[in-house]
Amino acid sequence: MYKLIAIDLDMTLLDRTKNISYRNKKAIELAKEKGVKIVLCSGRILKGVMYFAKVLGLHDQVIVACNGAIVRDLKKNKDIYYVGLENEKSIEIARICKENDIYYHYYFQDTMIARRLDYSSKFYYEKNRELPKEERIDIIIDDSEQTLKSCGNLITKFVIIDKDVEKVDHVREIIEKRLSGVETTKSDTNILEVMKEGVNKKRALEFVCSYLGIDPKEIMAIGDNENDLQMIEFAGLGVAMENAIEELKKIADFVTQSYEDDGVAKAIEKFVLGETINV
C-alpha cells in the first residue's frame, strides 16, 4: 500500500488550461480519504503551489515548491525546509543572462522578480486579476544588481526562458561551465531552472519521508519532465505521463495516460484505489 503520492503540476496534474479535471480531483480526494498523503511537488513558486493545494483541499498536507528548494507544512503554515542560492552565484547567473539577452526571473521567498514582464511573469500578472489579494503572487520588474544583492542567500531559483531552445541550451552550457555549486534542470524544452547544487525534488522528498516517517518504497511519484527524473527514480513506484520525455519513460515503473486524458487519476485508480472513477 502506498502511503504518499507525490504529484507534479504542469503537464502532469494540470490540463492544457492549467486547471485540474474533475476525475483527477476525485481520485486525489478518495486517496486522501484512505489516509494517503498527497504532496504536490512542483517547480512553481510557493504561492503558485499553495493555490492548487487549496483547490484540492490539501490544507493539512505538505507541499514541495521551487523544484525542491522549499517544503511547506500547510497545517503549521510554515516552511520546514528552505535552500537558497549563494548570492554571488545569483549575481553571476543574472550577468550571464544579460550577456546573452535572454529573459529570466527569480524567486525571493514569495516574490517573483523578473527582468521584464514576459513569459511566466506575464502569465502570473494576468492570473493575479482572477485571484483574491491574499493568493496573488507578488511580481516585481527589476533587473538591477542592487536588488539581487539585497536578497542575500534567500533566492531559491532562477527561471530562464526563450522561444529559441538552442539559445536556452547555450546559456545552460555557459552556466554549467562557469559556475560551480549550482544545479540546472528543465521543466520544459525551453525553460531552464537553476538552483543551489543538490536542490531537486528527490532531495525534498527525502526530507518529507523523514519528516512524515514514510519509507521511500511507500511513495508513488508522478511526473513528466527532466526535473522529475530523480523523484521518479527515488519513489517506490515511479509513474511517467504518456506525454513525458523519453528519458523519464525509460526509468519509470509505469507509463500512464497523458495529462489531457486524466493520466494522474488513472494511475491512482490502478495502484491506490483499485477501482475506476465514474465520470
Describe the model.
With 279 residues, the protein is α/β, with parallel strands linked by helices. It has 2 domains: 153 residues, 3-Layer(aba) Sandwich (Rossmann fold); 110 residues, Hypothetical Protein, Haloacid Dehalogenase-like Hydrolase, Chain: A, domain 2 (2-Layer Sandwich), CATH 3.30.1240. The chain is 38% helix and 24% strand. The protein has 11 helices and 14 strands. Strands 8-7-6-9-11-10 form a 6-stranded mixed β-sheet, sandwiched between helices. The protein has a 5-stranded parallel β-sheet with strand order 2-1-12-13-14. A 3-stranded antiparallel β-sheet has the order 3-4-5, with helices on both faces. Helix 5 links the parallel strand 7 and strand 8. The longest helix has 14 residues. The protein is globular and about 55 Å long. The mean pLDDT is 97. This is Cof-like hydrolase. Keywords: Hydrolase. InterPro entries: Cof (IPR000150), HAD-like_sf (IPR036412), HAD-SF_hydro_IIB (IPR006379), HAD_sf (IPR023214). One of its GO terms (cellular component) is cytosol. GO terms for molecular function: magnesium ion binding; phosphatase activity.
Key phrases:
279 residues, alpha/beta, Rossmann fold, Hypothetical Protein, Haloacid Dehalogenase-like Hydrolase, Chain: A, domain 2, six-stranded mixed β-sheet, five-stranded parallel β-sheet, 14 strands, magnesium ion binding, hydrolase, phosphatase activity, HAD-like_sf
Explain briefly what this protein structure is.
With 279 residues, the protein is α/β, with parallel strands linked by helices.
